[in-house]
Amino acid sequence: MNKNQNKQNNGNNNNNNFFNKNPIVVFAIFAVLVIAIFRTFSVEGGLSGEANLSSATKNIAYSELKDLIVANKVSKVFIGQANIKAKASDGAVVYKTRKVDDPRLVENLESKKIPYSAIDETNLMADILFSWVLPLVLFFGIWIFLVSRMQKNAGGGILGVGSSKKLVNSEKPDVKFDDVAGVEEAKDEVVEIVDYLKNPEKYMILGAKIPKGILLVGPPGTGKTLLAKAVAGEASVPFFSISGSSFIEMFVGVGASRVRDLFETAKKEAPSIVFIDEIDAIGKSRSSSPMGGNDEREQTLNQLLAEMDGFSSDKSPVIVMAATNRPEILDKALLRPGRFDRQVLVDRPDFKGRMEILKIHMKGVKFADNINVEEIANLTTGLAGADLENIVNEAALLAGRASKKEVGQKDLIEAVERSIAGLEKKSRRVNPKEKKIVTYHESGHALIAEVTKGAHKVTKVSVIPRGLAALGYTLNTPEENKFLAQKHELIAEVDVLLAGRAAEEVFIKEISTGASNDLERATDIIKAMISMYGMSDVAGLMVLEKQTNHFLGGQTVKDYSDNMSQKVDTYVKEFLDTRYKDVLETLKLYSGAIESMVKALYEKETIDGKQVREIIRNFEKENGLESRLTPDKDEKDEDIEKAKSHISETQE
Ligand code: ADP
Ligand code: MG
Ligand code: ZN
After folding, report:
1. Which residues are recorded as binding Zn(2+) (predicted)?
2. CA angle 97, 98, 104 (to 5 degrees)
3. Cα angle vertex 533, ends 529, 535, to 5°?
4. Does residue 198 surpass a pLDDT of 80?
């Protein structure tokens, strides 16, 4: 019994799938059927009515019919618009022929005294079909086609208007706080929620008001979704999630009713968590959309606000968590007390956090014993948890491709390099002229980095093109874990950035577009020195720019006079000019070292920091120069107890 039912169900499902996937085919079959029926009725049944004779029909030529008339072999003739039918005298057969424009037909019939009449070839059936059913079918077909397409786009569909079955994910995650690393502050902020969800009575008795809405703010891939799931997992409550972006491109009113349903379900299953990912998609402030209001979005937002205001958290402990990486564009109404009044920053992990995240994701992968996680954490400054997870997986894939038994350190490093600068593209051809420019440009960066006090040491110089934009790159790693930069270090960084362009000028004798990013960064550093760090004569200790949003790069607010602005511009330009002249001098002085580096890069495409320093050291010895290299720590470099927190990269 059961088995049979299952079979039937399966059959139905398949049919549904077929209809859903092939609306055009289904419609075509339908149309052909209708046309076939229509034709049957209109042509075959065309001479029905009076001419509906029980005898067989025989198709003949018009000339034959004429002969039959002359020979008196027909008893009655029916003349239609396109066809003529004639009943044989013996009644055994009905002749049928296409009509020919023959004015003498009637004359002939009259002379033979054969009765004749005109008939209407269309009948009622054909009429209905043609003027009613066919257009309806066409209309319906097109409608189904459009709707099925919209269903695909919207994920839900018109047939499920108001039902949130497809868009809302319901689960009971088994994620725990231990699975989320590197975001300790954020975890601290949400632990009390777990307790509340577990023992709501405890708080109710006291009359405590637990926040209803928690907004997780942070760059993509830092674990916002993961953290929300972990709260549900720790409290073992159901987790209902929905993505703000899924509301876009929906019919007006659907979003609002979906929100209503979402909260209804969540309340039924309370205590529970509602998670709204990408809330900025619906919660954008009304003023920030230049194209004017979006009805659907506003209705959805209003419904969400109404739901959050409506449910009193003492009766139904539903916690609403939302995630965004653009908190600044959210409508202020969302952030009011009683709504998302608590904001939790989920930031990119620091060195220690990266170590922990890497370890979490390395658990499921077979690694060699000598893996050095610190080194990987060192190389991945600025990357988010999702990137780190990706790197571990990429390393496993690389090892797999090489048919290794376990994943090694090399695979991890390779994976890091891939994710930092895009896929290594040895196959991409760089024309010789470009290669020459890139080689000198990178050598310039590397040399200045090594001979300038306060600059980050070079770890690697490469002229292998990576990704789409970069033709080469130089990796620099600072020596210590640093949170502060001294003035001379900032200036050193500017020098290193300018060195690419300077090398082009000195050695190629012509400059290229390859330095634009370097110049932009150099300019930014100098501006920051003046306007934020109080490191210039022009503004002294006066702060000209404030960061309003310290995370996510935020916005800066400028606060100074036009007069000052002019002075700053002049200062920045003069500063850059002076630094550039200095760098030019140094490059000229070390031109022999640059040439050796270029030669090595031509041969190997990639050289590491040690080789760069060796080249410079040899050059200095040969030319009797006092060494400007920082005392050699190369060999000690291997023991990694120092936590480097920063990696900077100069491309091209
Ligand atoms: P977000 O929602 O902030 O964009 P996700 O939570 O979707 O980021 O992160 C995607 C994946 O990356 C997670 O499922 C997890 O595997 C990994 N990940 C991200 N951040 C962390 C973290 N802090 N700790 C452990 N894993 C993380
Ligand atoms: Mg997410
Ligand atoms: Zn450069």
Report:
1. 441, 445, 518
2. 90
3. 60
4. yes
Domain ranges of the chain: 2-41+125-154, 48-121, 165-345, 351-421, 432-636
Which two structure tokens, joined as six digits, stand for 119?
Answer: 């008939």
- Both tokens assigned to 637: 């470099």
458-463 average pLDDT score = 83
Q: What are phi and psi of 57, to 5 degrees?
A: -100, 140
The class level of CATH for 165-345 reads alpha beta
48-121: CATH topology is: 3.30.720
Q: Is 222 annotated as a binding residue?
A: yes
Q: Which amino acid is at 16?
A: N
- Asked if residue 387 has its Cβ within 6 Å of ligand 1, the reply is no
Beta strands in 40-92 (DSSP E): 56-59, 74-79, 83-88
Q: Which residues pair with 239 in a beta bridge?
A: 171, 273
Q: pLDDT tens digits, residue range 150-169?
A: 655 544 444 444 444 455 67
- Kindly state if the Cβ of 385 falls inside 6 Å of ligand 1: yes
Q: Residue 55: pLDDT band by 50, 70, 90 thresholds? A: low
**Topology (CATH) of 351-421:** Helicase, Ruva Protein; domain 3 (1.10.8)
> Residue 469 pLDDT more than 70?
no
How much is the average pLDDT of 614-624? 95
Q: How far does residue 495's CA lie from ligand 3's centre (Å)?
A: 11
* CA-based nearest residue to 138, from 36, 22, 30: 30
Helix/strand/coil for 466: strand
pLDDT score at 150: 62
Examine the residue annotation and report whether 442 is marked as an active-site residue of this protein.
yes
Which has the closest alpha carbon to 333: 325, 341, 345?
Answer: 341
User: What does pTM read for this prediction?
Assistant: 0.50
Q: What's the CATH fold of domain 432-636?
A: Methane Monooxygenase Hydroxylase; Chain G, domain 1 (1.20.58)
Cα of 645 to ligand 1 centre, how many Å?
21
Nearest listed ligand to the Cα of residue 220: 1
Most informative mutation of 187, 326, 348, 389 for ligand 1 (most atoms within 8 A of CB): 389
